[in-house]
Amino acid sequence: MPDDVVTMDKVVALCKRRGFIFAASDIYGGIANTYDYGHYGVLLKNNVVGAWWKAMIQERDDIVALDSAIIQHPRTWEASGHLAGFTDPLIDCKTCQQRFRADHLAESPCGRKPSKLAGETPECELTEAREFNLMFETSIGPVKDAGSTVYLRPETAQGIFLDFKHVLQFARRKPPFGIAQVGKSFRNEITPGNFIFRTLEFEQMEMEFFVPPAEAQQWHEYWLKTRMDWYTDLGIRPDHLMLRPHEADELSHYSSATSDIEYRYPIGWQELEGIANRGDFDLIQHARVSGEKLEFFDQQSGERYVPHVIEPAAGVGRSVLAFLCDAYDEDEIGGEPRTVLKLHPALAPVKVAVLPLLRKDGHPEVAREIHATLKRAGLQSEYDEGGSIGKRYRRQDEIGTPFGVTVDHQTLEDRTVTVRDRDTLTQERIAIDALGDELERRLRAEWRSPKLATG
Ligand code: ATP
């Protein structure tokens, strides 16, 4: 069985070449662990986030949406434990001036050449580990004094806990129910990033599911399965995903049980999403520090309790990276090498490319008309008439476009076009009038990664 051809370098190169994702502040030489998303990257990212909202909100009745502020009252972070405890153990090397996370020392390359691991050569002079807070600090107002210090949120979750009471009132929900949020979080990470795997600013898709305390374990198990299914339904190969329960010494300060969903990235198995049982830690803490009652009162039973919280917390960038790595493939068509993203059609940035065979004989006019009709129908369509048809197919394959529609001589005679499938490479003639419906049908059809057959 051939090995998966994907490497991190190939994915990074494709993302740069096709403008999916590239280094931020590039004209100034870049800035640590920070990336910008270009056109196809934005479309792909939006599709990932859209699929998450669909699973959280559109397909269920027990979760509501929220968009809370990035800068919250500073006492938020005192209550949540982030001010005191959101730290990484940091080690400096006095010889090469590099910084390492103490818990990542075994896989951290040293700053000198030939590259060794930190602490591996006799010249390495490592300091003792010291705790380093990951929150970015800034201040409100013109005078920087102790009272003006605020923080960029390191997770979206706390905004959800602060608004728990409002949602109970306005959304008329009772446990079990969830509050979902997507937004940027910020962490002053010191470990090298591995492309978008670990960045200073990143988007999170987090949902806090509030449950009666006695049901917490059962809901934790439910969300572990539900979130694993989300990834596999969107085409991630099941043998590239696993659930890894945290050891007792790995658990966050708020968690009584956490399992990570790990993906087998080209750099090895790494966390894609964490699913924690946060218990009543956060609501109790915010109630204590704010003086507000954060509990649920069941009018029917007269029962009053602080709900426990199950939290599936996923990274948008890490999901995008997992989908890209899982989709990346190389093959040959007619002796010509091809790079292709075998993305789930629901995630593909462009759904259909409309290509006139020739740039004359009326082909472009008909193709433009089809392109406009598909766009009006809500399909992300791209028109391309530049270069040979083979070259244009390959351009689309490389960005993962599942369908190519070609207008040729026969189109002008009988108003049919060929539809080429990215994965099977089959070409079928379809009437222009039936094209929109047929593409919709294919986009909705169940899809399985073609890479499953080759390992
Ligand atoms: P790690 O151990 O890799 O630092 P974490 O356990 O601290 O991650 P969580 O606090 O559980 O991460 O955050 C939930 C999710 O947010 C992670 O599973 C990941 O997908 C994403 N995430 C966290 N930190 C980053 C980051 N610096 N860059 C990109 N995504 C991140």
Topology:
Layout: H1 8-17, E1 21-23, E2 35-37, H2 39-58, E3 63-65, H3 75-80, H4 82-85, E4 87-92, E5 99-101, E6 130-133, E7 137-139, E8 149-151, H5 157-162, H6 164-170, E9 177-186, E10 201-211, H7 216-233, E11 241-245, E12 257-265, E13 268-279, H8 281-290, E14 296-298, E15 303-305, E16 308-315, H9 316-327, E17 328-333, E18 336-341, E19 352-356, H10 363-376, E20 381-383, H11 389-399, E21 403-407, H12 409-414, E22 416-421, E23 427-431, H13 432-444
Parallel strand pairs: 3-9, 19-20, 19-21
Antiparallel strand pairs: 1-2, 4-5, 4-6, 7-8, 9-10, 10-16, 11-12, 12-13, 13-16, 14-15, 17-18, 21-22, 22-23
Adenosine-5'-triphosphate (ATP) is lined by residues 155, 187, 189, 198-199, 202, 204, 271-274, 313-315, 317-318.
Describe this structure in words.
The chain has helices spanning 8-17, 39-58, 75-80, 82-85, 157-162, 164-170, 216-233, 281-290, 316-327, 363-376, 389-399, 409-414, 432-444; strands at residues 21-23, 35-37, 63-65, 87-92, 99-101, 130-133, 137-139, 149-151, 177-186, 201-211, 241-245, 257-265, 268-279, 296-298, 303-305, 308-315, 328-333, 336-341, 352-356, 381-383, 403-407, 416-421, 427-431. It is α+β, with helices and mostly antiparallel strands and 455 residues long. It folds into 3 domains: 8-74 and 139-324, Bira Bifunctional Protein, Domain 2 (BirA Bifunctional Protein, domain 2, 2-Layer Sandwich), CATH 3.30.930.10; 87-133; 350-453, Anticodon-binding domain (Rossmann fold). The strands form 7 sheets. It has a 7-stranded mixed β-sheet. Strands 20-19-21-22-23 form a 5-stranded mixed β-sheet, with helices on both faces. A hairpin with a 2-residue loop joins strand 17 and strand 18 (336-341). The protein is globular and about 75 Å long. The N and C termini lie close together (6 Å). Bound molecules: adenosine-5'-triphosphate. Adenosine-5'-triphosphate (ATP) is lined by residues 155, 187, 189, 198-199, 202, 204, 271-274, 313-315, 317-318.
